[in-house]
Amino acid sequence: MLDANPAELRAAVRAGEHTGPTAGVCPGFTQANLVALPEADAFEFLRFCVHNPKPCPVLDVTDPGSPEPARVAPGADLRTDVPRYRVWRHGELAGEPTDAREHWRDDFVGFLIGCSFTFERALQAEGLPMRHVEQGVNVPMYRTSVDCTPAGRFSGPLVVSMRPMRPDQAIRATQITSRYGPVHGAPVHVGAPEAIGIEDLARPDYGDPVEVRDGELPVFWACGVTPQAVAVASRPELMISHAPGHMFVTDARDAAMATL
Amino acid sequence: MLDANPAELRAAVRAGEHTGPTAGVCPGFTQANLVALPEADAFEFLRFCVHNPKPCPVLDVTDPGSPEPARVAPGADLRTDVPRYRVWRHGELAGEPTDAREHWRDDFVGFLIGCSFTFERALQAEGLPMRHVEQGVNVPMYRTSVDCTPAGRFSGPLVVSMRPMRPDQAIRATQITSRYGPVHGAPVHVGAPEAIGIEDLARPDYGDPVEVRDGELPVFWACGVTPQAVAVASRPELMISHAPGHMFVTDARDAAMATL
Q: What is the SS3 assignment for B67-131?
């Protein structure tokens, strides 16, 4: 399925033929984080995203009650087209099904939020290091001491991902990711982890630690885990998300996420 | 008041000392379009904006019931700090007060939407022509045959503003405004007006006609009139907007709207 087009990949997911992670799948097409919430929570959550565009870039919002992300994947179904889901009840993990139809409610609103896979491909295309890819692990992610702008019941810390780079590489990576405003954009911090409340780079809050070599700086980007962590922390009655690494594959091209 | 800081300007507006247009006021600070709607309409309207980011760049959304745009102008009051308002009942203009307190409702949500004043200053700084400024008129705006992505009851055509430029100027203007993703970004069309459903450049739907000289192309940008026109056309029970040219002045700097 690696080279399938997004519609073919989603059909395979829907049929239960692809239930694994989506890293490397459908190269060139944008993958997205899923958050689905009851309509009663949806306006506050969308306000939270609009107030925090770097960690929460909204690629699509469904009509209430519709599972179709008509803007980025017309004809797709968010209840079936994600390889693996997480079901959260009152903020507690209640299951990891491969099909969300039995949990989905008629009043649900689905949110698709940009993912760093998009800009990582642009960085790799210029030969910049992706240490977590080299080491075959997940990117390290950290809760910071930086608060997001709250909206109603939704509030919490900014979560960042980290990629170690030499200073010249960090500068080039800043230029490249600045073009990708709709998918996290430029870094939010470079250098001293303690300045944003990270005590130990070797102990990330999500994902895995990676080696930071002599002469390298840690470079931090706003992370799409932020909205999901914030939504779970607010303990909504019911919420459905993708399982980590098991993303929704859209019809939007990575290259189209660059604004310049 | 031309060189006031935004808080001073807003205090003068609140005191009734400044009731005129805001063109040229508080140079360097971002001005914004206002739309205020009952909470019952607010989620659909915000979804409309998120689905149509070029004409509807959301700079701030208030908490329901709060008139404070806490993100871009902490301490300000959207009921009093706009020089002149328009009050709309069921889509019909019902008044143009300089103070909106008697019309504002406890369930209102205020939206501040980016304005082309921001990128016009960047274009003028490079000597690119602003024909409407030279001629002392309002920028010409046109309803196009391009439909916005609908959201619930909100749908309608894309409205564009037009500035005539030589081809080399149009290319440079495209580069410059591409940096201003949060305030309409790059042009949406250049050249043939009929390709986007505009029959006669000399008869704009809003604003005033301007001269297009030999060797110049019309260059079209998505316009912040779009969300207001769409909101009015949906005939909400009550809506409050700014009066044309009488914008809300934020604390955000124009330069900070550039993403690269």
A: CCCCCCCCCCCCCCCCCCEEEEECCEEEECCCCCCCCCCCCEEEEEEECCHHHHHHHHHCCCCCH
What is the pLDDT at residue B2? 62
Whole-model pTM: value is: 0.89
Closest partner CB to A47 (pick from B46, B181, B259)? B46
pLDDT band at A1 (very low <50, low <70, confident <90, very high): low
pLDDT tens-digit series, residues B65-78? 999 999 999 999 99
Q: What is the DSSP letter of B25?
A: S
Closest CA in chain B for residue A51: B60
CA–CA distance, B41 with B21 (Å, rounded to integer) = 28
Using CB atoms, pick whichever of B43, B71, B178 lies closest to residue A43.
B43
What mean pLDDT, rounded, does chain B reach?
Answer: 94
Instruction: Indicate yes or no: CB of A259 within 8 angstroms of CB of B185.
Output: yes
What ipTM was assigned to the predicted interfaces of this complex? 0.83
User: Which residue among B43, B151, B260 sits closest to A178, beta carbon to beta carbon?
Assistant: B260
Touching B: A residues 158-217, CB under 8 Å:
175, 178-179, 181, 185-186
B51 at interface of A, judged by CB pairs closer than 8 A: yes
How many whole angstroms separate alpha carbon A159 and alpha carbon A229? Answer: 9
More confident residue, A24 or A192: A192
Task: Give the separation between CA B182 and CA A50, rounded to whole angstroms.
Answer: 12
* Residues contacting residue A18 through CB under 8 Å, at least 6 positions apart: A1, A9, A12, A25, A83
In chain A, the residue whose alpha carbon lies closest to the alpha carbon of B149 is A71
How many CA atoms does the CB half-sphere of B249 hold within 13 Å?
A: 30
Does residue B1 have a pLDDT over 70?
A: no
| Nearest residue to B171 via CA among B157, B155, B187 | B187
Does residue B177 contact residue B151 with C-beta atoms inside 8 Å?
no
Instruction: Show the beta-strand stretches assigned E in chain B.
Output: 29-38, 58-61, 85-89, 92-95, 108-114, 141-147, 157-165, 189-190, 217-222, 238-242, 248-253
- Give percent of chain B above pLDDT 90: 88
Provide the chain A residues 99-158 that lie in CB contact (below 8 A) with chain B. 149, 151-152
Parallel/antiparallel/unpaired status of strands B217-222 and B238-242: unpaired
Give the pLDDT mean for A201-213.
Answer: 96
